[in-house]
Structures are given as C-alpha cells and as structure tokens.
Amino acid sequence: MSIQNLNTFDPFADASKGADDDVQDGLVHIRIQQRNGRKTLTTVQGLSSDYDLKKIVRACKKEFACNGTVIEHPEYGEVLQLQGDQRENICQWLTKSGLAKPDQLKVHGF
Amino acid sequence: MTEEDAIFDASLKKKKKKKKGYDFDAALAEGDNQESALQADLDMEKKDEDDDGNVDIDLDFTKKKKKKKKPFNMEELEGALPETKDDETAENVNPEEAVVDDNLDLELDFSKTKKKKKKKKDLDELMAEVDEKQDDKENVDDNSIQWLGSDRDYTYDELLNRVFEIMRDKNPDMVAGKKQKFVMRPPQVVRIGTKKTSFANFTEICKTLHRQHKHLLDFLLAELGTSGSVDGNNQLIIKGRFQQKQIENVLRRYIKEYVTCHTCRSPDTILQKDTRLFFLQCETCGSRCSVASIKSGFQAVTSKRAAIRAKTA
Fold it and tell me: Which stretches make up the Translation initiation factor IF2/IF5 domain (chain B) (predicted)?
C-alpha cells in the first residue's frame, strides 16, 4: 500500500533541462574543410547527445542528396560529417526541424 | 598614417557639412565666405556680452545679417582673427577630439578603400577638405559655446543643440543611420600553385589591427580549418584554395569579435591575456570583457589515411 503524499518528489528534476523544453544546449559549430580539388566537407559539432545522430544524418543525407556519417570523437562527442558544402542547408534544416535555434548555430569557415 | 588621415578627413567633411546645412544656411546665402560669417558671429558674441538683457538667441539669422554690415572695420577683424586661431589650436590639442577622429570609421568596408585610394592622389582636393573641415569646426564650436563668455542665461534650444552636438562628436555611430566606418586595406590574396594560397599583406594587417601575428594566425587557421605558416617575406601561406572575398569574410569576423569593442564598437582596443583567458579592453569607453578563445574544434581527416599512417608509424 502506498500513500501518495509520502512519495518523494524532486521539484528540481527537470530544472537541468532548461526553461523551455529544448534539448539543445550550447553552440552547434558548423565548419567546412577543404579536401582535394574543389571538394569540401561539412562538420557539425556540438549537437546534443540526447538526439539520435544516426537518424539525423539519415534525414540529412536524403534531404541534401549527399553522403554523410557520424563520427565518435573522444573530446567532442558525436560529430556529424557531410560531404560537400552543406553549411547553408544544415543551418536551415536544423532551424526548420526545431533541433536548434538560429542563435545556437555558429558557422565557421570562409 | 597620412592615408588614414585622408580617409578620416573625407568622412569628417561629410558629417560636418550636414550641420552646416541647417545652421549656416542663411549666412551662406548671403554670399559671404565662411570667414566673414564667423567674424560676424564673434562680433555678435561681443554684442551679447555688452547687453546682458538680450536673451534672444542667436540662431536667429535675420539679426546677424543686420549686424554683419556694421562691424567690418579692420581693427575688430584683426582682433577677431587671432581668437579663432586660438580656438583652433586648442581644438587640435584637445585629446578628446583626436579620439573622436580616430573613431570615425567602423564599418569594415574593404571595397571603399579602393575608391579612397584614388582620392588620396589628389592633393589639392585634400587640402581643400582640410581647410573646410577646420572652418566647419570653428563654426560648430562657436555655435555651441556662444554663451560661455557671457553670464546671460542659456536657453533650452541652445542646450539641446549643445547636447546633441557633443553626443554626435563623441560617438558618431549612435546617431541613427550614421554608421561608423573602419577602413582598412583589403587583404592581398594570391594563389601559389594549385594547393596553396598566399596572404601577402598579413603582417601589415596585423599592424593596422594592433594584434599579434600569432593570434590572428591562430584564428585564421582555425576558422578555415587548414594549416599554414608565415614565411620569410612576412606573408602567410595557407594550405588550400581561398579567394580574397573569403579571407575578407573571415577577417571581418575576427575584427568583430577581437578588435572592435563590444560595447561602443570602437576599434581602439587592447587584447590582454589574463589567466588563460583573453580580455578585450577598450581605450575609448574603458569597458573590459572576455572574448571567446580560439578553438579549431573537430577536424575531420581529409588527407590520405595511408599517408598519416606512414607518418606516425
């Protein structure tokens, strides 16, 4: 038999999650790297680990018609890597899908 | 420095001209040159000092016109002239004024520098501008401190004008629609072969920004995600193909983050390192804030993995 009033309840349980229910905290760094010739590589670092990056990359690959992968990095966690210059695309896509706010995106590179 | 001065002059001229537009229209319409208008002003001042009861204020140009005809005897003119000179020199010495001049240009406009370079060649034009600027300065000052010598009451309008003039002088970017411009030379970017890019005036740009080579170098390489180094001719060699436009973009971002003050946007700042953190200290407004450290972040493998393995093994 359990008495409801005596249940322990942590009032700050969801305080660590932030004020409004967005999972993304901290900046998302979007970088570009040059490869050989005019080929480039776009990396997306800092997406919250609460997201399923594999699903994200699957959606991105389909959306931008490029290849991509998720790379596990000891310091930076999971990093998304897409072929080609997808900086514009990924910014739009992340904001449109509500995964990150525009002011959380930081685009590097030229 | 002379080039910079020229640029500043050009903008100053524009700015001051506007003021002249409404203040001295009437006087100019008379067809007199500015000197005579100025002396008329000074004479006015004396008059005002004479009769203190005269609270009626001087932006009234109809009065001036009448008076202008009166005091053109040579003695008074000569008496007035040295006074203006004094004013002028005082202004030139005044450090605040100098600071304002330095501040004047804050938008990173690489394209405009080219235009202005052409202008520089024209020395006559330059001199004319300088003259005009000085004249304008005198005029403005006369206008704002007209009551200083006298003990008559100042009016609301006068004070209002004065406040706005001071505000405009001290921080020109605050006035709506008038952005500060920070003019610098565009980076000279040349391709070396197919795989490398040279940034020829790298050290020069470091000097104009008052930043250490290492800091700017770190930033550029981290942002571009490549490697590079400064060679013997003080030019920066970057791996990869980059165009001038792209380097300009990165430089612009650097200036925004590490050169201009975050509070007053003045480029007159010092970057200090304090317990592993970089602090940006503004010389104009005295604010001090920390700036983001330079991190290159995650770097994907772009070269041949076999080559890396060969290197490490």
Answer: 179-288
